[in-house]
Amino acid sequence: MKNKKLSLLAALLIAAMVLAACPQPTPVVETVRETVIVTQVVTETEEVVVTPTPVPPVQGGVWVEGSSADATILNPILASDSASFDVLGWFFPSLLGQDPFSGAIVPTEMASSWDVSEDGLIWTFHLQDGVMWSDGEQVTADDFKFTYDAIGSDLVETPRKANLDNIESIEVLDPLTIQVTYGEVKCDALNNLGLGWLPSHLYAEDYSDVMDSPLNQEPAVSAGPFIFNEWIRDDSSTVLRNDNYWKGAPNMDGWIYKIVPDPGARLAQLQTGELDLIGVQPEQLTTVQLDANLNLHKFQDDGYSYIGLNQANPANPQAGQDEDGNLVEQDPHPILSDLAVRQAIAHALDYDAIISKVYLGQGYQIASNVLPAVGWAHDPSLQPYAFDTDMAAQILDDAGWTDSDGDGVRECNGCATAEAGATLTIRLQTNAGNTTREDLGALVQDQLNGIGFDIQFEAIEFGTLVGELLGQTFDMVIIGWTGLGTDPNDDSFWHSKFDTPGSGFNFVSYQNARIDELLEQAVSVPGCATDDRAPFYHEIQKIIHDDIPYVFVTGSVGNVGYSKKFNGTNPGPWSFYHNIETWSLAE
C-alpha cells in the first residue's frame, strides 16, 4: 500500500497598530481601543490510505503427488493404510479440526463449537450450518451418528472398533447438534472422533451394505474441497475441484495421486515437473536443495529413536502393580537401576556424531518424551543431555564404579546396586537387518567402552527381540516409537500398570508414583483444554528427563520436496494441505 500525506502551509499573520497624535495646547489623553484579529493557521496532517485493487488468484492447474503405494479402499471406517487416507481425506467431513503446526484440536471442521458438562463426561457439539454433500444433500448430525453406529455394528468389519472405547452414547439432538457421552473423562479419546463421516443417505439403515458398497471404490459424493473422478489401480487417483466446498472452492482444477514405486524415479519426475510433491530420501536432499524450481519442507515428525534401560532384574521380571493397583517393589537391575550409571550413559554419547554419521543428518536431539511437534504440550526449556565424557567418567567414579585392575573395564567398588567386584558389563540389543540401528549399536558400544563399560552388542532377529522386550529379559535395547500422533498421552510407556511381563509396553519396568498420578490427571481434565493439560505434561517431561528410563537418541524428521507451481503453500508438521483451497498458480 502507498500512504500519502497532505500538508497545509502554516503562517502567522500579525496586524500592526499605529497610534498618531496631533500637538494641542492642552494635552488630552484619549484611550483608543481597537480590536486586532490574529489569525492562526494550524498545521494538520491527514493520513490517506490507498487500498490497491485486489488481484484475483490465478485459477486452474493440477497438483500431482507421487507415492510409492496405491490406496486400497476409499471408505474412512474401513481403511487402515496411509495411502488410502491420502486419497479419501478429500471427500469426507470430520468433526474436529487440527492445528497444522501444534496438533491441538481446533473448531475448523464440522464442529464450530462445543460445550462440556461440569463432570467432563457429556460433550455437545454444534455443527456448521449449510455444509452440503456434492449431490445437494445437507451434511448433518445424522451422518456422524450413522458412521459411528456402523463402526459398532456386527455387520461391519473395521479396524476402527477401538474408536468407540469409552463412548456410552451418541445422540442427535437436532440436525446440527450432537451429544457424546463418555464413561470417564479421557482427553486423548477426542482423537477417536476424528474419522471421516459417511453420507448416511446413500447407505442402508442397517449398515448391511457398508462392507461391499461400490462407494468404497468410487465415492459418489463429497463434502470436501475435491470430488472423486477416477481411480486407475496401481497407476493414479484423480480428484476434481468441488465448486460448492463450504470453505470456498479451490483455485486449482484438481489433484492427482500418482503411483511411482521407485524413489529415484519419483525424484526424476519431480525435477521434470511430472510430479509436484514427493517424500525425499536422505541421499536425495542435496539434489532437491540445489534445484531452483523446488522447495524442501523439513519437519519434525511424530517419532523418536531411543535406548531403553531396563530398571528391573531381567532374571526376575515382575508386574509393576498387584491386583489392587498397588506398586510392586521390583527386584532392581544390578547395574541400570543405579541412576548414576544412567546419567553416565546419557552424557557419554556423542549425539551430533550419531545424528550425522548414523542418521545422515536426518534427526535432532530431544530432551524427553513429548516431541516439539506437539507444540502445546512440549516443554522447550528442557535441555538434552550434553556430550561430556569427562563428566560421565567422573559420575561413574563418584558412584563407586572404578577400574581397579587397569584392564579398561570398571568394577563395582562401593557402587549402590551391584555386588563388589562385578564388572560394568551390559548387553545391548537391537533387531538384525535394520542397518541404521546396527550402526548405532556399534557406535554406542564404542563410545561407552571408551569410558570403562563393557558393552556386549548383538543384533538379533526381530521376533526374538520383541520376545525379550515384552518378557523384560534384556538389559539395554535400541528401538523406536513412530506414529505417536497429536496427543501427548503415552501412559502405556511409563505407567506402572503397563509394566506387565509378556504384554506391556512399559518393558523398561519404570516405576514412579508421581508419574502415574500425573499421567492420570493429564487425561482427566474436564473440558480437556490444552492450557489446562499442558502443565501436567511439562512436569512429566521433567521427571522422565531426570530419571532416564530412556536415553533419547534422536527425534525423527520428515522431508518433502515440492514444486513452486503454486503460491500459498504453508506446510506444517501435521498437514501439508491444510490451506489448499487458497493456493493459486504462480504463473
Commentary on this structure:
- With 587 residues, the chain is α+β, with helices and mostly antiparallel strands.
- It has two domains: 236 residues, D-Maltodextrin-Binding Protein, domain 2 (3-Layer(aba) Sandwich); 258 residues, Dipeptide-binding Protein, Domain 3 (Dipeptide-binding Protein, domain 3), CATH 3.10.105.
- Helix content is 20%, strand content 22%.
- It contains twelve helices and 24 strands.
- The strands form eight sheets. Strands 15-22-16-21-19-20 form a six-stranded mixed beta sheet, with helices on both faces. A four-stranded mixed beta sheet has the order 5-14-13-12, covered by helices on one side.
- Strand 8 and strand 9 form a beta hairpin.
- The N terminus is likely disordered.
**How would you state the average pLDDT, rounded?**
92
> Order of strands in the sheet with the most strands?
15-22-16-21-19-20
Q: Separation of termini?
A: 22 Å
- At the third CATH level, what is the topology name of the largest domain? Dipeptide-binding Protein, domain 3
What is the compact description of this entry?
The chain has about 575 residues and is α+β, with helices and mostly antiparallel strands. The chain is built from twelve helices and 24 strands.
